[in-house]
Design brief:
mainly beta, Immunoglobulin-like, 10-stranded mixed β-sheet, 4-stranded antiparallel β-sheet, 18 strands, globular, DUF4249
Length: about 280
């Protein structure tokens, strides 16, 4: 038994001696404009404009806002009325006065002193056809039905929210696709739980599918839940898929770096369409 402890101690010393701090330097192309806007039908459009920073610079206050940027918004090539500057929860946004309309194409153009002008364009997807959300108390399964459009490439984001004492959804539930019930969607199985599921309809195009989600923790101490299903444009899908992969990496340097998708020409960020349906239901 004494030899076991000796070997264990030597093993710890060996691994400690092999540890080496690595300073990874990633290329930086200089300051660029960063534009972020998720455009939803029947909602005004919020556009956040910031300045990029090198990957080795960490700022607790986040990216620097470009409050004096020249921002224009086009709907099917027609410039809409000037945007208004608003501060929401400590962040600044350029906000439209008109609501986005399904079937229209939106283009955001941004110019700022000392940086190359940028632009991004996207449309709006149709709303998801979802229903019959349900869950049982002290279980770990949430169910709902999705009817996918035939002969169309559709993309989805799924999230689960728990409700707080104030009657508002305030906590994202970690979950995964339950392999016991969704064995025809093996491409989307994960070993661990995540805050969202990003998927395309390649496995169920044009079909009605009963989804069963497995929550990381049993459903307790809450009277109601909300299942949020969003249809995404291809650009929104590519962006969320890259962000999800980056989150799963957890910042480790031993995996392949994930480059976050951007559709902003000459800059960074995402301008993309999203259409969300939220199903709120009591936990029985």
């Amino acid at each position: 038994m004494q030899n076991v402890f000796v070997y264990a101690a030597l093993l710890v010393l060996f691994f400690c001696s092999c540890e080496k701090r690595v300073d990874i330097k990633l290329p930086y192309d200089g300051d660029k404009i960063v534009v972020n806007s998720l455009i939803q039908p029947d909602s005004v459009i919020y556009i956040r404009v910031t300045r990029s920073v090198p990957s080795n610079v960490y700022d607790d206050n986040g990216f620097t806002e470009i409050t004096n940027a020249a921002v224009t918004l086009e709907e099917n090539g027609v410039v809409l009325t000037p945007l208004q500057w608003q501060e929401i929860k400590g962040h600044g946004y350029f906000v439209s006065t008109q609501k986005a309309i399904l079937g229209k194409q939106y283009t955001v153009r941004v110019a700022a002193a000392g940086m190359q002008p940028v632009m991004a364009t996207d449309t709006l997807p149709a709303a998801p056809d979802v229903s019959m959300a349900a869950a049982q108390r002290n279980s770990s399964r949430v169910r709902f039905t999705l009817k996918d459009r035939p002969d169309a490439a559709d993309f989805y984001r799924i999230r689960i929210f728990a409700y707080g004492p104030d009657g508002q959804p305030d906590t994202l539930r970690l979950f995964r696709l339950d392999p016991s019930f969704n064995n025809n969607m093996v491409d989307f199985f994960t070993s661990g739980s995540n805050s969202s599921l990003i998927m395309n309809d390649a496995r169920f195009n044009g079909k009605e599918v009963n989804f069963v989600l497995q929550t990381q923790d049993p459903i307790a101490n809450t009277t109601q839940l909300m299942v949020e299903v969003s249809t995404l444009t291809n650009d929104a899908y590519q962006y969320f898929k890259a962000v999800s992969a980056q989150e799963r990496n957890g910042g480790t340097i031993i995996t392949e770096p994930v480059r976050v998708f951007t559709n902003v020409s000459n800059g960074y960020g995402i301008v993309a369409g999203i259409n969300t349906k939220r199903m709120t239901f009591k936990v029985e």
